[in-house]
Amino acid sequence: MEYLPVAAYLLFFAFVAATGAPIAAALFRELPKKGAAFAIPAALIPFAIVVFWVGQLSFGRHTVALALGAVAAGAAFAYRRGARPEWRAVAATYGVFVAGFLYVALLRAAAPGITPAGGEQFLHFGLVNALERAGSLPPPDVWYAGESLRYYYGTQLQVASVSMITGTELRYGFNLGIAAFYGVLVVVAYGLSGAIVERRGHSSRLGGVLGVAFVALGGPTTTPIRLLTPSLPEQIADPAGRAAFGFAAQRFYGGELGAAIADLSDPGSWTWWYTRYVVRGTIQEVPMYSFVKGDLHGHALSTGYVLFAAAVAYAYYRMPAEDRHRRITAVLGLGAIAGVFGFMNTWSLPTVGGLAVLAVGAADPHPATLLSGRLAAPIQAAGGDAGRRARVGSELGRLVAAGTVGTVVVVIGVAVASPFLVFGHVPSNEGIGFFPPRSPLGPFVVVYGGLLSMVAIYVATLGRPVLARIDRRYFALAGLCLPVAVATALRFDLGAVLVTASLVLVGWVLVRTDRGDFAVVLAIAGLGLLFALEVVHARLPRIDPPRWNTALKVAVQGWTLGAAGAGAAAAVVLSRASSRLAAYRGTDAASADAAGPSAAGAASPDRRVALRSSLAVVSVCLVLASTLVFPVMVAQQELGPEVASGGADLTLDGHEAIETSRPAQAEAIRWLEDRPGTPTIVEAPGPSYRFTSPASTFTGLPTVVGWDHQEEYRSPEAYERRVAHVDEIYTGEWAIAAERLERYDVRYVYVGPGERDRYGELRSFERPAFRVAFENEAVTIYRVDRDAL
């Protein structure tokens, strides 16, 4: 394993943590340790924005250095204004980041190769290579020569920037970048859940650990349900099998449910790949899945920033009403995070607006108090405080005002990302669609059962005193309505809608009646996103089923936010239950001693509390165990063979796969990689998720046309036209081929196994316009002489 690149990355992020600590201390003053856990993302967000904006004019190592200098200047300003970090806490939480970083670095080292099978590593590696060569942003499209990129590239931009400033080759930086984003997710989950739990008077460390367990490690209940299905009684195994295996059987086993159950329930043949195929017509991931999958997808690697936006929202939630300027700063901070999402993962931009709405609406200060006192007073007075109807009107008015703040956050985000979103080249789409095919309740619970259970346990725990004050007639009415609602939901596949909407509604009532806390707000955010999947979807061309990409890129955000709330909730429930059990044992022992031996078996008046507390502990432990089955199985699959062999093959080299299986092509690619500038190459197009377009992918040199993703980014007609032109270069009449070479300014023609497989008989390149620039037993690269052409 390569230790120098690892050390370089750890030193860089130590500098980032030290630089971001004063910024975090200024923003998170009300939180434990002055927000030390958020120091790294507090620096990375402005760093990314400066690189993005300055890069529009000039991009390179100097741009990255300038961005680091700008963040350091901001940190110095905050420090001079009195933002004093707790440096011991900063060092401790940096250790949490390091633990997460090293864990995923180890996972990547077990399978480091950049391959096309089953993912988009080829696309993303081509982009980071293209960015390293780019003189300005946006970079040239590596798979559509002569045009700028039409794809949000913020994730790849940050990976390339860190690799450049640390002097790390991208063949290592690709995998280390994945590990770094995971480290951010781990430390933010630790800090946010810990802060919420400490606010409730319990251990922040327990809250942080359980936050990491649910958010960054935890997985869907799919895995334990699938593994247990063959052992269940037949009357339970049949419906469980259809819910847990039905979609995977349809997609991968030709509809053979029995074969799918036999294969995917066997621990020996289990693989994490199939766990996202449960709810028909969708693919749904959790963060652990996304990081193990190992590409640079924005939706996968931005989850730490999604949680950081939640942390900023929590900071706002905790700020007093009189601290108006800092609350405005928090809103602006949310806008900045939304801006990074604008060019990193546009799917998350509205999520930040939604978090702003929830935080501003749930906080004690009225949203209108963000305005000056003279403007705020009439807005606050409009709702009134007398009577139930006035209270409802006041709450609606508060939500409308909070919605305005959320809109402002989104507008700021669009402005920050405007070089891409407004003035750039955004992939085409057909807008928003409504009421897509819904999620059956069974498969939905198979995926999210543990998360839903933890939220329900917490809501029930917090709401029990409220229920005790409700008139029993309302319970009777609810008892009559519930069977009708359940039957309707099952009949029309509205079960997922009913479950998520009910928890969101009850949770919001608890928050606004001061029974709920920010863990409930996070649960509302996460479940709200899962509810949204049942109502709206992005209408993307050439994507079928309609919810495919929407579910993939929204569900992981829903899990991230909901799981952060669940982790904090689990810590609070366990802490409260443990305290009550300890008190009960002490009281019971004291009563027995006072009453003498004859009273030893008497029932304590607090026994019901002890039973409820015991039940809560058991329930939380079962939920936690169910969510941790997935990472245990992942570690066994990814690291088990390496442990068995002594870890001799561990490496972070992304070129490992091509160097091992295609050494002749790797040699040709190394030669191309050394060419200066961005000369255009041509290589044979081919189907996506196959070993096609390797020369452009591994060098960052633009090729005339690459994978068929360009059908989405441009149009099917534009893509097919270029494919036809490339075909003519390799097989067409010479006059036409010469015109195509000149049109795209091709400097190198790549002839390797892919070209021979696609075309069979290739044209002769024995012409004055070509000379052999590189040749080995598998690949010949011709340099095009433009004058002779």
TrEMBL record:
The lineage of its organism: Archaea, Methanobacteriati, Methanobacteriota, Stenosarchaea group, Halobacteria. It comes from Natronomonas moolapensis (strain DSM 18674 / CECT 7526 / JCM 14361 / 8.8.11). InterPro entries: DUF2298. Keywords: Membrane, Transmembrane, Transmembrane helix. The chain crosses the membrane at residues 6-28, 35-53, 59-79, 91-111, 172-192, 204-223, 296-317, 398-421, 441-462, 474-490, 496-511, 518-536, 556-575, 615-634. This is DUF2298 family protein. It holds the Pfam family DUF2298.
